[in-house]
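tokens incoming
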């Protein structure tokens, strides 16, 4: 696992590593059924949120073959953590990455996910020189698909009934963008 070296600031958000003091905010994110609906786990108790947060904090910080960078998303107006996002990548010849995350339900629909994804794409393509970054979602999670589309990812695959999640077969959408496509979107010359 790796961490952000410095906090990142957008107009509305601060992206930073998680801290143990984030427990109450993280618990509030995952206590809602609508947040967990498309995830592999059920609504989390405060104890389960503590265990998940502790796993973020206990992982080694060195860059290894398969890296995960958890990102706490803080609303600048309030100072509260409202999102749990990540960038995962490999250091091998393929240089593949993945982005994803969850937001507190009261903060959904405000464009925060796209704001975070823009920063994670920049880190992945600039700092880690990744070739391709994907976002994977349950096909029913239209809001997540749209957030990924807003930052330039396109649907690459739809895996039909490929996972059995919470008692039903679900489709998975794989969205992706390559570095050269991302660079074209950010070329201001």
């Amino acid at each position: 696992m790796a961490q952000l070296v410095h906090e990142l600031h957008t107009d509305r958000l601060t992206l930073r590593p998680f801290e143990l003091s984030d427990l109450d905010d993280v618990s509030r994110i995952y206590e809602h059924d609508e947040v967990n609906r498309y995830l592999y786990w059920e609504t989390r108790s405060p104890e389960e949120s503590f265990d998940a947060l502790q796993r973020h904090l206990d992982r080694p910080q060195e860059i290894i073959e398969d890296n995960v960078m958890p990102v706490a998303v803080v609303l600048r107006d309030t100072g509260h953590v409202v999102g749990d996002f990540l960038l995962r990548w490999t250091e091998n010849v393929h240089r593949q990455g993945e982005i994803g995350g969850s937001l507190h339900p009261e903060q959904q629909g405000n464009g925060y996910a796209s704001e975070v994804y823009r920063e994670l794409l920049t880190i992945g393509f600039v700092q880690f020189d990744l070739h391709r970054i994907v976002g994977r979602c349950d096909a029913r999670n239209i809001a997540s698909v749209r957030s990924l589309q807003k930052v330039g990812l396109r649907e690459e695959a739809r895996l039909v009934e490929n996972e059995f999640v919470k008692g039903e077969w679900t489709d998975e959408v794989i969205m992706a963008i390559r570095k050269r496509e991302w660079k074209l979107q950010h070329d201001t010359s």
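note: The chain has a mean pLDDT of 85.
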